[in-house]
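Protocol step 4 of 6: record predicted structures for both targets in the notebook before any analysis. Target 1:
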Amino acid sequence: MANLRDLRQRITSVGNIQKITGAMEMVATTKLRRFQDRAVASKPYSGEIEELVRRLSGAVQSNPRLAGEAASLFAAGNPSAPRAVLFIGSDRGLCGAYNSNVQRFLDAQLAERKGEHVFFVMGRKAIAHASRSDYQVSAYLEEHVLEKATFADAAAISSALVKAFLNGEVSGVDLCFTRFFSMMKYVPVLESFLPIQSPAEEAGDDTILEPGAPDVLGRLIPKYLETAVNHAMLESITSEYAARRFAMKNATEAAADMKKEINRAYNKARQQKITSEILEIVSGAEAL
């Protein structure tokens, strides 16, 4: 059995770890609420603009001129080019299985696909996985820190993806990120970004656009793509902090349980030492 000094040191060490993880849980909870509010606030707008574009894309498929300058974003890309993936991970660990879940999901999705892929990567954990997996990285978006990202960052990333598609460098673009549903549910997804596709059940739309479809769609489509990237980033960082809060909560509770066990062992060892000392005193007294 460990001596009393070792047990006291372990109690102190575990107590310090408990304080650290407890503080990290509080920080994660605060940031989670902030990012969750932003994600929830942007969801109605992003949902409405996505639904509108998806409905109008049916009409554009049959008459590309309606989209004006944005018509090429609805057309199939260069078939000989690889497909691009915007892979969003985190910059830091201590968030449970968040990174490993999205990494395993991406690996599984790519294993089912044919053809080459190139990656636009956000997050140090994501680029580390891409390097380990020998993925072809077209760009590491190191200057766009997910936690500090703004709509301007999303617009810049969207512009880079659109440029690669229009130049024929990639045949299409997918977004791989973690979609946030609730504090306890956040699921990795791989969603199509380019070319813009209409739902299979919708062949067209009878919406009247003023001043005209080319003018409206020419301004709407870029904003839609920027919004899609921005919302993917928001949902990813919200999911990351939900995972970090849960991981730190579990770590704090585990430290508390461990501290109780060590305290129990310490009290038992202390009692044994006291009993042993009493027996020695009694034995010494009897000898006299």
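Target 2:
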Amino acid sequence: MAGRVLLVEDDQTLRQTLTKALELGGYRVVQAESISEGTLRFSEMINCSGTERLDLMIVDLGLPDGDGSSLIRWVREQSSVTLIIISARYDDNSKVNLLDAGADDYLVKPFSFTEMMARIRVAMRHRHQDDNPTSRIYRASGIKIDLQRHQVIRHGERVHLTPTEFKLLERLMLQSGQVVTHRQLLADIWGAEFVEHTHYLRLYMAQLRNKLEEVPAQPKLLITEPGIGYRFEAEFN
């Protein structure tokens, strides 16, 4: 079994459809249709262990007793469980704020079940890496990154990165496949007092692309998410 999911969605038809898709993917689903019910179910599940452990939470923003973002922020204060938002809203500021608040990903309705399952796999892999940081060497697309030695090898040749470039690459790599917001990157690399200095990111991302991309002007690894942040598009092993 892939894990246990708490699905908080008030639309009964969509809730049942998502449940079937998740069950086909090997998940066991507990349903809730409001913030109050989601809070109750979360409280029941969070202290369970083994096969009863809560592995993933999917939350709609438009719930009958309030905005799902309040539930997301409350859950993140209690737990590091994987959190994915689903919503019909497409607002960059909302996405940025919720990702900054600790959500792992944000799916805009309508979305395909294939996309949903792929996003879930990426988000859960990232959380698993955070909880079990056993591997310190990553390889993808002709690039080898050794976190312990602070080394980057590209097509067999050593790539010189400055300490800041390496920290930025490492931060994106550890969340590969997911968008990391400007504020998250700036706070993690430079400190909370630099969260408005997005020009730092533009400069260092350009330098990284020049060193790692086959065609820096057409990046395939270091992807810009306009208005939100950056994403490392690679499957590491």
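Step 5 preliminary note on target 2. The domain at 3-131 is CATH 3.40.50.2300 (Rossmann fold). The longest strand covers residues 3-8.
Proceed to step 6 after PI sign-off.
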